[in-house]
């Protein structure tokens, strides 16, 4: 195999689609259950471009345009509905909201600040008195993550990729300083020139035996399930450790909105050796950014606006409507 992708969720399927579309025919996805499991199956599918770093915002903007034309591009609906996306912040975060909107607009994203009256008109049922500033993204909305994963998968298969369900990967195989493939739970080994690990929260355990440490954020509490998130909340996308190993993990529950662009970036790196989108530099998502212990600050988190965390503040942080 040219490429084996471990994980049949959004990111794995998006990678298979993008690679197959580039003409890489020998692509195999291995999924331990059925397509669209894990975090993908539990995703709310919120689509917006209100991300705190330019590269993440640009990925979301590229992805939104694919969701809007999914039937034309992927050959199937992903259930996308344009409802608009309104965000509100308390007094402490007004400047951060304004800076975030300015950055996003510089990328061409359709987002703008709105006053309280406009916010009330947009969401008449919402209680807005405690919020000091608002931003609105008219093209935001939501989609169906499960349908999206299947749409990626069908498009990938039409382009020549293969998908194996109920094929759990037990380990990655390697020789010297190079990954050589994977070993399934039943003992079968599959050789591959490149292995892309897109297994969500299970990714760190798969790559750890090869000496690859995927930084994992700590959370004080969870109300259901789990997210795979890095300390800086931006994902790891790109080569890691031994030659032939790629990782796409650590999306912190926000992988849906950027999944098409994630697949494109993986295809860029594997086919071209670099990102072809100047607004999405691969270095922003490289594992090596953690080498000096300086991941992106939480105030530039992958999810949401560039809002600083102030534990003692009782003002509302933000509201997604």
From TrEMBL:
- InterPro entries xref list: FAD-dep_OxRdtase, FAD/NAD-bd_sf
Q: Which GO terms describe its cellular component?
A: cytoplasm
Q: Which Pfam families is this protein grouped with? A: DAO
Keyword hit for Phosphoprotein: no
SUPFAM superfamilies from the UniProt entry: FAD/NAD(P)-binding domain (SSF51905)
UniProt superkingdom: Bacteria
- Tell me the keywords, alphabetical order: Oxidoreductase
Question: The FAD dependent oxidoreductase domain covers which part of the protein?
Answer: 2-210, 222-269
Q: Which Gene3D superfamilies match?
A: D-Amino Acid Oxidase, subunit A, domain 2, FAD/NAD(P)-binding domain
In alphabetical order, the GO MF annotations are: oxidoreductase activity
Please identify the protein, giving its name as recorded.
Answer: FAD-binding oxidoreductase
